Structure to design on (117 residues):
């Protein structure tokens, strides 16, 4: 049974899954919109909403933690200079997932676009 199992494992180990989501988060910050598979998009939405909710508090320890997780100083500065001020007045739902009507040509996977609201 899958009761109370909300984390999509994406067919990866924990460390690989965390690295994938961190890389997608960094790409989302830099590009403000990315195209990925539906399952990764759903996992990324939960991941990003939690990270941005923590970033809105703007505590020094949270900033240091996010800087180490992002790995890119461009993404870090863009997050705190442009994205967090836009999201301050929202109480949640910082990311939108839009499913595309077409599937990927190679393997038929349903794709989605992830973007900031």
């Amino acid at each position: 049974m899958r009761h109370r199992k909300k984390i999509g494992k994406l067919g990866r180990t924990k460390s690989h899954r965390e690295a994938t989501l961190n890389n997608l988060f960094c790409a989302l910050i830099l590009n403000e919109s990315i195209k990925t598979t539906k399952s990764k998009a759903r996992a990324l939405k939960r991941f990003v909403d939690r990270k941005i909710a923590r970033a809105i508090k703007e505590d020094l320890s949270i900033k240091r933690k996010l800087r180490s997780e992002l790995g890119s100083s461009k993404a870090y500065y863009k997050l705190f200079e442009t994205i967090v001020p836009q999201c301050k007045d929202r109480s949640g739902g910082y990311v939108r997932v839009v499913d595309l009507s077409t599937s990927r040509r190679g393997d038929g996977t349903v794709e989605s676009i992830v973007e900031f609201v």
